[in-house]
Amino acid sequence: MIHKVQTYIETNHLLTFEKPVIVGFSGGGDSVSLLYILNRLGYKCIAAHCNFHLREEESDRDENFCQKFAEKHNIIFEKISFDTKSYAKKTHVSIEMAARDLRYNWFELIREKYNAQAIAVAHHRDDSNETMLLNMIRGTGIRGLSGIRPKNGYVVRPLLCVGRNDLIEYLKAKHLSYITDSSNLSDEYVRNFIRLRLIPLMEEVNPSVGTALARTAEHLADAEKIYVQTVENAKKSFIQKTDDNEFRISINEIMRQPAPRSILYEILRSFGFTRQISEEIFRILTGESGKVFNAPGSDFKLLKDRDYFIIYKQPEKTPEIYKIEENNTDCSNLPINISIHKIKVDSSFEIDRSSYTGTFDYDKINYPLLLRKWKSGDWFIPFGMKGRKKLSDYFSDHKFSIPEKNKTWLLCCGEDIIWIVGKRIDNRFRIDNDTKYALIINFSQKNSNI
């Protein structure tokens, strides 16, 4: 047993002998084995016991046992008491989740106190198998089928190489006592049901099912690494991040993948989209454009465009209307980067045809100018045309995506739009043969919210 655990620790790079290790110590057979084995191996252990006060006098019995055990073996002992039920009620989580949160939060505090290298917990091979079966029943993906990992941050699990019966036999051989949590004997909880009823049935088919499941979990863990690498390579190859902090996912590239549904889900989950929403998005891969999905776990939205999925953050509402007074050339307070000049029109004057420059007849402008976002009902008369056009129709004709619409700014003279900034001016404010002075407004996308 000692050799097997030490080999597992070394193989998975779980611990060194340089710093102490915090050992979660409940007093049950698993944690007694862990603490005893690590102590025998020469690691400097700090036994950390949590009293959750969930089983009346049993909880105090466990605490007393743990303290005496640690004292007998000259191991530093730390303990804490929790009002677990009150915490669960306050945080609106289950008792099991409350106990877990309290336990690991305190473990981390103790780790910092002793500058410990890790927090060792007593999960063993059977726990890992039960986790795999539980996740399988719940319908998890490949990430949940590799069981419990030997290391997760500062938390290490040196006993995953041995089963529950192995530990009990070891304790008997060493004449070590331990306590039994009465709740572990009930099949009220799903995990206990798997342990007490499902696995015994599986053992009737294969008496070595525990070893078989552990071997399968190892294979799946390796498969998961390949899977994760494939997903990361896919992300790098066909997710484009634009200068506007949008993410464009090529639909054609998704369809070329060997498992497009899974690749799409793995990409979307990093933005907060659930599997259910990912499935809905996958169903419209070849559907019409324009449908928008919200990620419940974040501020991200996804737009189904023609050839891309566009992921973007919903912009903050900007109800402000920014005023530009006459003869005021200081535009530093504006959310976009523009410069304004008044120029006399003479024979040498030439119009800048760039869409980033707006050229207007100065005498047709009434100040103050107003800078704002678009709203329903907006219209203008596009340069070179005579009839009015709804801004929503202009957006549609020029294939503006929803994020592009949301980022569009309008320069207005009263209620009249004189310029869709960086796009097109209104014909009513153009210069003509009678223009004496031109108002030149240059727009730069650099450092602008557009």
Task: Report the uncertain regions.
Answer: none
Helix content: 25-40%
Q: What is the radius of gyration?
A: 33 Å
Distance between the termini: 64 Å
- Count of separate DSSP helical elements: 14
Overall geometry comes to elongated
**Number of DSSP strands?**
21
- Spatially, the strands of the biggest sheet line up as 3-2-1-4-6-5
Q: Report the major sheet.
A: 6 strands, mixed
Q: Briefly note the structural class of the backbone.
A: alpha+beta
Q: Please, what is the average pLDDT? A: 88
- Quaternary form: single chain
Strand content: 15-25%
Topology:
Elements lengths: L1 H10 L9 E4 L4 H13 L3 E7 L5 H16 L3 E6 L2 H8 L3 H20 L3 E3 L4 H14 L12 E2 L2 E2 L7 H10 L16 H16 L3 H30 E3 L5 E4 H6 L3 H10 L5 H9 L8 E3 L5 E5 L3 E6 L8 E3 L12 E8 L12 E5 L7 E5 L5 E2 L8 E2 H7 L4 H5 L2 E5 L2 E5 L3 E2 L11 E8 L6
Parallel strand pairs: 1-2, 1-4, 2-3, 4-6
Antiparallel strand pairs: 5-6, 7-8, 8-11, 9-10, 10-11, 12-15, 13-21, 14-21, 15-18, 16-17, 18-19, 19-20
Helix pairs in contact: 2-7, 4-5, 6-8, 6-9, 11-12
